[in-house]
UniProtKB/TrEMBL annotation, chains A, B:
GO terms for cellular component: cytosol. The gene is mvaD. GO terms for molecular function: ATP binding; diphosphomevalonate decarboxylase activity. Pfam families: MDD_C, MVD-like_N. It comes from Vagococcus xieshaowenii. Residues 183-314 form the Mvd1 C-terminal domain. This is diphosphomevalonate decarboxylase. The keyword Transferase does not apply. Keywords: ATP-binding, Lipid biosynthesis, Lipid metabolism, Lyase, Nucleotide-binding.
Amino acid sequence: MKHSRVTARAHTNIALIKYWGKRDTTLFLPMNSSLSLTLDEFYTDTTVSFIDGDQDVFFLNGVEQPLEECVKISKFIELFRTQSSIKSAVLVESHNHVPTAAGLASSASAFAALGTALNELFVLRMDKQTLSTFVRQGSGSATRSIYGGFVEWQMGIETDGSDSYAIKVDDADWNIAMLTIPVNTRKKEISSREGMKLTVETSPFYPAWVEQAGQDIKAIKQAINNQDFIALGELTEANGMKMHGTMLGANPPFSYWEPLTVKVLQRIREIRGQGIPCYYTMDAGPNVKVICQADKADEIKKLLDQSFPDNTTIISGVGKDAYLLSVE
Amino acid sequence: MKHSRVTARAHTNIALIKYWGKRDTTLFLPMNSSLSLTLDEFYTDTTVSFIDGDQDVFFLNGVEQPLEECVKISKFIELFRTQSSIKSAVLVESHNHVPTAAGLASSASAFAALGTALNELFVLRMDKQTLSTFVRQGSGSATRSIYGGFVEWQMGIETDGSDSYAIKVDDADWNIAMLTIPVNTRKKEISSREGMKLTVETSPFYPAWVEQAGQDIKAIKQAINNQDFIALGELTEANGMKMHGTMLGANPPFSYWEPLTVKVLQRIREIRGQGIPCYYTMDAGPNVKVICQADKADEIKKLLDQSFPDNTTIISGVGKDAYLLSVE
C-alpha cells in the first residue's frame, strides 16, 4: 500500500568507542567498529510525503533549505527510490530536537529518522539491520541511531558495505545516563570530516588507534555484558582520549580542545575523586559528555552547574530504536 | 694538580625533538635521540670543593639540602670519584638562575654544571662528549646542556650507555631566540619521570612515537643545516604535540594541559596567522615555550604580555657550552 505521509523519529547517539576514520569515503565505511549510547533527550522528527514535480524539497525546522543541502538529501532519497517501483519526488519536513546549545551534531538522528520514514514511504520493508546500511550512506554515525540502548556499528569487511551495519548490544536499562556540557557551540574550524581525513592520512598513531579500537570494542561489550559501570566508564574515557591523541599526532597537529574543555575535564576528575563514578568522552569538538549512573545524574549536574553556570549541563536518559510516529 | 675549589656554569636547554621514554632507567638511556636549544637566560652556577669527613654536603641556593637530595647528589659525585685517585668528600654549593616563575626544570643545567665542575676538581680531563655520558646519569636532559646552540643527544645502542652522548649540531647563531610563557609553576601531579614510564608501558602510540622521533631528528638537522626557520619551527611544534598525544593514549590517559595552556597555544597560532613566524613546544608540564627569530622576539613578547599580563613572557637567546668560571 502506498502511503501519502509518513513521520519517523530517531534519537541521536554518543559513541563510547569512537568512529574515527573512513576506509571508503563514498559509502561511509569505517576503519574501525564503534559503539554508542542512544540518548532519549535529543532526536529528530521527520515527515516525508510524495509531491508532484521531479525535484525533492527539504524543509528543516520549517525553513526551506538551500540547493546544496537539497542535493545532499536528494542523493540520500535516491538510495531508497532506486529500490522502489515508486519514482515520485519527496517533500522532507524535518524538525531537530537537538538544541543548538547542546553542541551536538544532529546528522545521526536526522539521517536515521529520514531513512526510517523513507523505508515506509517507499514500502521497502527493510529490516533494521539493512536499513542501517542505507542511513550509513547519509552520515556514518546515523548507522547507530537506528537502534536504542548500546549499539555497535560493525565495520564489516566487504567493499560494497553490505556488512557494515548496526546491531543492538544491550538495552542499557541498568541505571545509565549521559550528561552533556556544552563548551562552545560555534562552527568548528576543522570539521569532523576534515579532522578524520587529516588524521588517517598523516598521524603516525592512526594504525595503533585502529588496532586499539578493535580491542576496546571487545572489552566494552564484556563490561556491558557484566553491567560493570566502572569498566564501561574507564574504557569510554580512555578510548575518547586516544582519539584526541591521534589528532596531536597529525601533521600539522590539531586539537578541538578549548580552555573551558580542560576546566570541565579537570572538574569531572575531581567529582570522580570525591567518589561519584563519572567518565568523560568528547567527539570531534570542544564539548564534553559524561557517562554516569542515572541515579547520580542530578547530583553531578548540580555540581557541574555550580562550577559552570553559563554552560548548563543537560541530562539525558537512554533512547530507544528509531520508530514510526504516524503513517497516513 | 689538585684544585681546592672549582666553579662551573651550565645553561638549561629546551628540547625541540623531545626525549620521551627510557630504555634503561638506571643509566638514563633514552628510547629515542633528542635535539635541543641551549638557552642563555637560565643557568646554574655550581662550586665544588674537597672537605674533611666521609659525607658529601649539598647546598642549593644557600640552603643545606635534606638527606634524600644529598644521597642523590652523592651517588652522582661517586661516578667521578671512582674514576679518580682522590677519594675525598665534596661540598657542593649550587645556585640556580632558573627563576621558579619560568616553570622550567633546573635539573639539566644543575647536573651539567656539577659534572663540569667535578671533572675539573677530580682532574679527570674527560672531553665534553665523555662528560655528557656522565652527566646523563644525573638527569637525561643534562646530557644536552654540556653544549651550547643546537645539541643532539644521540640515543646510542650500547647497553652500558657509552655511545649515548651529546654532540653539538650548530651554534644557532642565525637569529634564533626562545620565549617562555609560564602557565603554572606549581608542582605537577604527575612527574615527567612517572608520565614517561606510564606512556612507555601503556600507550599504543609509543612505538610510532619512537619511530617518528627518529625521522624528526633527521628532518630538523636538515632544517638547521639549511637555516630554514619555518621548517625548524614546524618540526618542533609537530614533535612536541606528538609527545603530548602519546599521553592521551596512555592507560589511564593523562594530560599536562591547563585551561591557560590552550589559550596560549591559540594565541600563538593567531600571532603566526598574522605573519610573524613562531612555533610552540611544551615539555611534560603546562608551560609553553616558543621558538622564534631573535629579531621578532620583542614584538611577540609584547603581544603575549598584552594577552597574558599575569604570565610575563621571558625572552632568551642562545646559550653556550658549559664552562669553568673559576679554578682555585
